[in-house]
Amino acid sequence: MKKIINTFKRAKANNQRPPLSFEIFPPKGVLTNDAARETASKLVDLHPDFVSVTYSAGGSKNSNATSEIAAILQDELDMTAMAHLTCSSASEEKITAALDDLQEKGIENVLALRGDLIEGQTPSTRFRHATDLIPLLKERGFCVGAAAYPEAHPTMMDLDEDLKYLKAKQDAGADFFVTQLFFDNECFYRFWDKAQAAGVTAPITCGIMPVMSKEQVQRMVFMCGVSLPGRIVKILNRYANDPESLRKASIEYAADQLIDLADHGVDGLHLYTMNKPEIAQQCLALLRDSWRQ
Ligand code: FAD
Question: Can you tell me the mean pLDDT for 224-239?
Fold first, then answer.
């Protein structure tokens, strides 16, 4: 299977379209591999360059599911997979066991995250930040992604300070970055300029999420601290009682974001699919149509 960094390097060297990727999450509760397999196989049919699988450190009782789904992607669906891994409450032994498991399953790409502390968990003294996890992954030969926040981490007031830590992740060995979702491309362009000025040279792939309801947007704004452009607010208000039209307008909005980002020559496009292949399919159809024109 492929190391994802080579996909970014090849696209840049050959002046190709930005690599496309999807995020999926393990089904809630007890893992049913069939449900995961069905979602994953529909997404793989859309020919992304890789698929990333989120990690839950305890909230949904299915943290082992990440490597199992990543293995299904690679072994059964012939798709490059990236496993997310968080460390905020982990011991060194737990992380070593997780890395053993990933290597036994042949997973070569890991998104190294601190994660958020879940109520009742004790913070790790060994792993305070993603920068503590990244070197371990590099020592074991993984290709390592890390998180980037175009509008700064939701608990960080100052983007410039956040960018110092982004650079620290690169210095610790991160090969590339995946951004937090954003709705305003201008925020990303400002961040991208500043990141480059701060010495960040690793590829940064842009995380985009088509929104499906006002409640979902409210959750994202609060959890992620992202800005809401007027057009999104108008879509949510106008179609408050018309889910079908809301869905169509949101997909068009996300596709417009992707098209604009690709036109600006970004390093990659990463779609937060929310495990809804039909929405990913409609976004990509609009994007690929624009590329054919
Ligand atoms: P860090 O890089 O440690 O950063 C956290 C905060 O500390 C930031 O404010 C940063 O500026 C600061 N900081 C960073 N390094 C240092 C340092 N060395 N010294 C001092 N301060 C520092 N969560 C999950 O639980 N599971 C997932 O699968 C998951 N996937 C995600 C995927 C993406 C693309 C993104 C963007 C986030 C994801 N998250 C996931 C959420 C993530 O775990 C949280 O945002 C978490 O609060 C921060 O993780 P991090 O790796 O960015 O942390």
Answer: 95
73: which residues sit within 8 A by CB, 6+ positions away?
A: 40, 44, 51, 53, 79, 80, 81
Distance from C-alpha of 71 to C-alpha of 94, rounded to nearest angstrom = 20
100: amino acid identity, one letter: D
Distance CA 264, CA 272 (A): 20
> What are the tens digits of pLDDT across the range 39-72?
999 999 999 999 999 998 765 555 689 999 999 9
Report the largest interatomic distance among the alpha carbons of the chain, rounded to a whole angstrom: 54
- In ligand 1, which atom is closest to the CA atom of 84? 28
Report, in angstroms and rounded to the nearest whole number, the Rg of the chain calculated over CA atoms.
18
The 3 state secondary structure assigned to 207-222 is EECCCCCHHHHHHHHH
pLDDT tens profile 175-220: 999 999 999 999 999 999 999 999 999 999 999 999 999 999 999 8
pTM: 0.97
Q: Cβ distance 203 to 12 under 8 Å? A: yes
Around ligand 1, the residues with Cβ closer than 6 Å are: 54-55, 57, 84, 86, 111, 113-116, 129-131, 147, 153, 155-156, 162, 165, 168, 178, 180, 207
